[in-house]
Design brief:
By secondary structure, the protein is mainly β. It contains six helices and 26 strands.
Length: 450
């Protein structure tokens, strides 16, 4: 579609032509549309769909957000105010005084305008992803543009405004911030402390240790050479879980992760120069380069069609991070992501695109019982609440409990989850627990430098 509507009858032709290009069972790029259909093993039977008819009266400014295919259009047409579409949110934010009538169309529909123009969004098996705008004036034609993103820019063009979508504005901001971080090379005692804490978390014996377990899983004082954790099955069968190799300075040089069947899943290699970490190489050849800026450590990596920059620092003794994931092509800027951790009210809050997603709140390390709460959110409402505690039975034995409470205002009813045993070097020797009604034991073996 190289040109837009200039004559009345071209409106229908334009949409039909677009549907022929997009609707002949060609794969839809995930980067261009939010309606991504994976190839089914057996195509579902779709009954004949009767299109809606939508009549539009003069007098208002209308914007239509069209995203229709034969699978997503089985419901009714969604009218203004009934959908929390992100593009709708952008339009409301950027044009609060225009009183736009925003209509989402997700079902095959004939749209009939009072000025006798028509949008024909029909055709069994065809797909339509586009915007349409009408000023509500009988002498003005309906304007159409392909796509499902950057609706603000499309409307701004019609209104001769300079408004931009927030993700476009944020992209400019984030690229400037990332540029200011790159090329730093100021290594100080503060940055060495940050990388030491970060590497110690990499070196924990169990993958994905959560904050509610860190009070126990911090390594002891032994000068480790290797660490191997595994599930201990009946008859002494071992299923590998994680392996770590260390240099004689106690820094990890390689970490191998295994899947549920004990097969090699992934590996990371850590490269040092003069005792300072300079690079992390993953098995898929993804390389993270590292820069230091006094109290900050900055990781940069290419992850396919995007670049990721992550910054780590220490605050109140806690390791925090923020990360920018920016698409290489700015036309996909709506896919960019900014995540950030903040230390707030003795908790670590996790934000995605400036919206809080979770809170981790823990007690003082090495003080027991160690109480920890985790709360996640969706649309500003609590999605999940979890409370745990670790009790110290003796110098080598700790017990982990989970509360049955599902909200902060409920009474706690703690149930034993598992038992952790330490060895003579205060390293985790074993962790026995019950999960999904199955008793499991993780055992950890170590070798040390003399």
């Amino acid at each position: 579609m190289k040109h837009l509507l200039t004559l009345l009858f071209l409106l229908t032709t334009l949409f039909q032509g677009y549907s022929q290009q997009k609707g002949k069972k060609k794969p839809i790029s995930k980067a261009k549309t939010t309606a991504v259909q994976e190839a089914p093993m057996a195509a579902p039977t779709i009954e004949k769909i009767i299109p809606d008819t939508l009549q539009i009266k003069k007098g208002k400014k209308y914007i239509f957000l069209v995203d229709v295919n034969e699978y997503s259009s089985l419901g009714n047409t969604v009218y203004a105010g009934n959908d929390d579409n992100s593009e709708k949110t952008e339009l409301k934010r950027n044009f609060p005084k225009e009183n736009l009538e925003i209509i989402n169309i997700t079902k095959y529909t004939y749209v009939l305008f009072e000025n006798k123009q028509t949008l024909d969004i029909t055709g069994q098996g065809q797909s339509f992803q586009a915007f349409a705008y009408w000023s509500g004036k009988l002498d003005d034609k309906v304007q159409v543009k392909e796509g499902t993103r950057m609706a603000t820019e499309f409307v701004a063009e019609q209104l001769k405004s300079k408004k931009e979508s927030s993700y476009v504005v944020n992209t400019k901001k984030y690229r400037k911030e990332v540029a200011s971080l790159q090329g730093k090379n100021k290594i100080t005692s503060k940055s060495k402390e940050v990388i030491k804490v970060l590497l110690s978390e990499h070196s924990l014996p169990i993958p994905d240790i959560k904050l509610d377990d860190e009070a126990i899983f911090k390594q002891g004082t032994a000068k480790l050479k290797t660490l191997d954790s595994y599930f201990l099955k009946k008859k002494g069968i071992r299923i590998p879980l994680k392996s770590v190799s260390f240099n004689n300075e106690g820094l990890p040089t390689a970490i191998t992760y295994y899947d549920d069947e004990g097969k090699n899943r992934s590996k990371k290699e850590f490269i040092y120069k003069d005792g300072v970490l300079t690079k992390i190489i993953k098995e898929d050849q993804t390389t993270s380069s590292i820069n230091y800026d006094d109290n900050k450590v900055i990781f940069t990596a290419n992850i396919g069609d995007a670049n990721e920059t992550t910054v780590y620092w220490l605050e109140n003794g806690k390791l925090l991070q923020k990360s920018y994931t920016l698409m290489a092509d700015d036309k996909f800027s709506y896919m960019n992501t900014f995540t950030e951790e903040k230390y707030e009210n003795n908790c670590i809050s996790y934000y995605i695109n400036n919206v809080v997603w979770s809170n981790n709140c823990g007690g003082t390390e090495n003080k027991f019982p160690f109480i920890h709460t985790y709360t996640s959110y969706q649309d500003k409402e609590v999605l999940q609440y979890r409370k745990s505690k670790i009790e110290k039975k003796d110098n080598r034995t700790f017990e982990k409990y989970y509360s049955a409470a599902e909200r902060a205002d409920q009474n706690d009813d703690y149930k034993l989850f598992g038992t952790i045993h330490l060895d003579d070097f205060n390293l985790v020797d074993s962790y026995s627990f019950t999960k999904d009604n199955e008793a499991k034991t993780i055992k950890v073996d170590y070798t040390c430098y003399e």
